[in-house]
Amino acid sequence: MYLLITVAGYIDAWPTIALVMLTAVIGVALLKRQGLATLTRGVTRMNRGEVPAQEMAEGILLAVAGALLLTPGFVTDVVGFLLLFPPSRQALVVLLLKRVEIHTASSPGVHPSQQPSPESNPVTIEGEIIAAGTGKITDNGDVRALDVKVGDKIIFGQYAGSTVKIDGEELLILSESEIFGVLEG
Where do transmembrane segments lie in this chain (predicted)? Predict the structure, then answer.
């Protein structure tokens, strides 16, 4: 606030208010552009069956940038614009993600029947489908039915999918392409 008052003392109140408003308008325009680009990258990663952790973290930082840019003040504007600048935002995300452990494991809606142990170092894991989606939406908008259904016993790779915790139970989420085969249906 001190800097804002000091600048107003040099250039008068109305130009200072106009400058604050201008940074907010420019910031919102840049925020929209960066937000859409980040969303597009995240959707692309999800369509490939990957977890968009980088994009989710960037989305949070973009929300912080938006709040800072709408807060009157030159220091908040500088920090907000730094978060809008992709290289600085992505560098900060890398630092943040190094501090967060991302659990990956098996497949969406799959409950593993065994957990890999460091001694055995298995290549595949058996599991049972406990939930399944309706299918994959193709490029032309049709829905291709899944080849697996609830109750199927399947095998999948040790590092496939992502772990989620629902009602205290750890489940594995994966795309159908990560399933090696159906043992019994």
Answer: 13-31, 60-85
CB 4 within 8 A of CB 23: no
**Same domain, yes or no: 92 and 137:** no
Identify the domain containing residue 20 by its residue range. 2-99
Give whole-number Cα distances, 132 to 90, 169, 177, in Å: 34, 17, 13
Query: Side chain identity at 166, as an amino acid letter?
Result: I
The answer on 65 and 9 residing in a single domain is yes
Quick check: 115 pLDDT over 80?
A: no
Domain-embedded: residue 10 = yes
Give the pLDDT band (50/70/90) at residue 123.
low
The answer to whether residues 30 and 22 touch, using CB atoms and an 8 Å cutoff, is no
Which residue type is seen at 108? P
Helices (H) and strands (E) counted in the chain, each on its own, are 5, 8
Q: Which residue has the higher pLDDT, 159 or 120?
A: 159
Alpha carbon separation from 179 to 3, 43, 68, 164 (Å, rounded): 58, 21, 44, 18
Work out the burial of residue 157: count CB atoms within 10 Å of its CB; fewer than 13 is exposed, 13-18 middle, 19 or more buried: middle
The dihedral formed by the CA atoms of 26, 31, 37 and 42, expressed in degrees to the nearest 10: 180
Q: How many domains does the chain have?
A: 2
Q: Of 99, 120, 135, at which residue does a domain stop?
A: 99
